[in-house]
Amino acid sequence: MKITEYIKNSQGKTLFSIEILPPLKGKSIHSIFNGIDPLMEFKPAFVDVTYHREEYVIRRRNDGTSEKISTKKRPGTVAICAAIMNKYKVEAVPHIICGGFGKEETENALIDLHFLGIDNILALRGDSLKTETTFQPEPDGNHNALELVQQITNMNNGVYLDLELTNPFPTSFCTGVAGYPEKHFEAVSDASDLNFLKRKVDAGAEYIVTQMFFNNQKYFDFVKKCREIGINVPIIPGLKPITNKKQLEILPQIFYTEIPQDLVNSINKATTDQAVKDAGIEWTIMQSKELKAAGVPVLHYYTMGLSEATRRIASDVF
């Protein structure tokens, strides 16, 4: 079932969903199940599964030559989605990215997902490689999430890369995209960022999931601006509790999000690791209750593959 259908059928009730990381290379699928099992009592409407593109290092051999070594550490998004759907009977939403894929590779991945009965996709550009100053697509790949959404929409309309196909079967994906309440760090302005988001929606995106934020007013203002320019699809807030003091520095650097001073003060006052975690969880509970009272369609939690903090939050909110 499509995410938009779940939201419609909920009749205004706020749904619960989570995002997980694929396990590190060499780890078992049970590391995924161990993170999901404690959260199933809250009946997640869907589980997002992230994708991390393949990266390489050049390693010198003893004979003076070199070899290119893959350092991809989190494989298996498609297989993990299939395993989650089979085990839990819940919708799994794979992240599909531009980086590292040509359009034909993307089409083949989408065909596989369609064969597996996966109805929902989160379409993302993806991050630049650590060796890149700006994002570099594959020569025959999508340059950004807008182009990726357009490719998915074409397939939904039965238009494949091979235009000579006879009566190609249309796919039926429900495509989600990312939104940034505090602006994507590469956008030149809030207005340009919102305009690009509207273009993704106009191209076929049916719902939006936001980057994490810690100030609900940022989300409310973002939704208001979206509605003012004609973006009328569901906008799902993404939340993550701070669980250690290092995240006060790391999260703003990686995700370009502002952490309210009250939250900073609360965490800095904590004298133990558990007290830090408690302060972060309490803040996210406060955020969740306010957002739920405002009637958001879904509360989406970035679990990072761990369930303890999210379980405590969901126990209090749902």
Shape: globular
Biggest β-sheet strands, sense, barrel? 9 strands, parallel
What do we call the CATH topology? TIM Barrel
Rg for CA atoms: 20 Å
Mean pLDDT: 92
Instruction: Tell me the number of strands.
Output: 11
How much beta, percentage-wise? Answer: 15-25%
State the helical fraction: 25-40%
Strand order of the largest sheet: 9-8-7-6-5-2-1-11-10
For the terminal residues, how far apart are their CA atoms? Answer: 22 Å
Number of helical elements: 11
**In CATH terms, what is the architecture?**
Alpha-Beta Barrel
Low-confidence segments: none
Please trace the helix and strand order, writing H or E for each element: HEHEEEHEHEHEHEHEEHHHEH
Given helix and strand content, the structural type is: alpha/beta
Number of domains: 1
CATH class: Alpha Beta
